[in-house]
Task: inverse folding
């Protein structure tokens, strides 16, 4: 085994007042984020997605193996193929896969099997988890894959919102069609489909409430 290599940490300590202000501003910004299902076709300025994806790639991961891949889809024909495949799965979901309780929970969101946003949004970001590594056709074990990809995706969603873009976390389960359409290697599994862009003019979102702080945090 080789000895680990270390470098000095770049870290600036803030005073308490500055920390609280930064934390409060970040909280208010993320509280304003909403899932959007009605997108403008306006293009995203060049470089914005790249910067957000670079931020996602800086996320911590099990043994620093970074078990994720992100595919950015802008091509109209590819988006159409993804929409058609997603809607085929969603029709089955709404017709017989989802139970009565699941369908009832979705009523407040007004969703159905029709997914026009998959073509309207100027870009789709498809997140893949790498079930294992591939080095010279040899398999390498990955650790805490779901947790690692979840953290990276959180970084990405926060970055996209901070940049001024709207997003949707879309999971047209099962998502194996994404691996086929996008011709991904054998070690990758679709994790999340994220339409991204500007909200359409007059866009509306469901009138929902979120749990209070006391409902999801316990201090001891």
Result:
């Amino acid at each position: 085994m080789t000895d680990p290599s270390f470098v000095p940490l770049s870290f600036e300590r803030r005073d308490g007042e500055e920390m609280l202000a930064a934390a409060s501003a970040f909280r208010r910004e993320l509280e304003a984020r909403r899932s959007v299902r009605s997108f403008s076709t306006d293009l995203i300025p060049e470089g914005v997605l790249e910067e957000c994806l670079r931020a996602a790639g800086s996320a911590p991961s099990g043994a620093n193996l970074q078990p994720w891949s992100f595919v950015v889809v802008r091509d109209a024909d590819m988006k159409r193929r993804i929409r058609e495949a997603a809607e085929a799965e969603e029709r089955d979901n709404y017709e017989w896969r989802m139970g009565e309780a699941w369908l009832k929970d979705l009523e407040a969101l007004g969703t159905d099997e029709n997914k026009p946003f998959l073509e309207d949004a100027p870009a789709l970001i498809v997140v893949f988890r790498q079930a294992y590594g591939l080095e010279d056709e040899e398999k390498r074990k990955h650790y805490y894959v779901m947790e690692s990809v979840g953290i990276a995706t959180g970084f990405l969603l926060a970055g996209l919102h901070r940049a001024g873009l709207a997003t949707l976390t879309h999971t047209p389960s099962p998502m194996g069609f994404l691996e086929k359409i996008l011709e991904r290697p054998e070690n990758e599994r679709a994790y999340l489909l994220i339409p991204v862009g500007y909200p359409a003019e007059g866009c509306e979102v469901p009138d929902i409430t979120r749990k209070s702080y006391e409902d999801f945090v316990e201090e001891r």
